Amino acid sequence: MLKLFNKKNIISLAVILAVYFIVQFFISNGSINDYIFTNVVLIGINIILALGLNLITGFTGQFSLGHAGFMSIGAYICAIVTAKLGLPFAIGIILAAISAAVIGFLIGLPTLRLKGDYLAIATLGFGEIIKNIFFNIDYVGGASGFNDIPFYTNWTWLYFSVVLTVVVVNNFIKSYAGRACIAIREDETAAEAMGVNTTNYKILAFVIGAFFAGIAGALYANYICLLKPDSFGFLKSIDILVIVVFGGMGSITGSIFGAIALTVISAFLQSFPELRMVIYSLILFFIMIYRPQGLMGTKEFSLGFLKKRGGLNAKAQDK
Question: Rounded CA gap, 301 and 294, in Å?
């Protein structure tokens, strides 16, 4: 217990609370208008989605193209809980995350025995099946969409959901299970030879990634207040994958930087939606050629990195 209250954790908690109260202050006095706040919400949702997918694809090496399907499950479950059943948002977001995680387990159990292209095709098929199921359920609006969802997503829910995702994924990666996932990514055969139960750890990463996609879907549903099955199709999964590749597969801070950068680019391109995917394609094209490891590669941003850079610059000036 005492280890939780060390100097590093106390400073981290102070920074987290300081950022929350500073942004909340600017929202309260109107300095952050609705347009800016909408983009802040989209950045937060994309960070959660990217971190979940990065855990599956970047850290565990399992190529998934069905992440939007888990997001849609979370979105519709939370919408049903809050709009149809009238229950609190807290219950909705918890049930959304658990439902997505359970579906992630059921889907991951058979499909994660596949590898490479076969796994990508299987997860792509899963995402399309989920989308078409919601298309044909009149209870949630079918193709015309699910309307009149209560507006519950605010800065507090968004911010602490992002913080929870970062903390859980970061601690998972540093745990034995996280190291096992990285070992699977590097060489699955060698990991099995060392006694790692590769199927169990791949499913665990899949379930955690789906869990956070469910949270992202819940935040999305109760902010946009309108759900359409088309919003969670193949292109949405590609959006999330582009963020992960752009930021760096295997980097938590890379996913955060990628989500911020690509969400801001999307905001600037809202008047030209036909160019959005073209620019995304160009970004992927140039990254694959000049920096295939993404912005951060597998590295993480830290204060120690800045001190190191500062020390190198000081030595260079002395010379």
Answer: 14
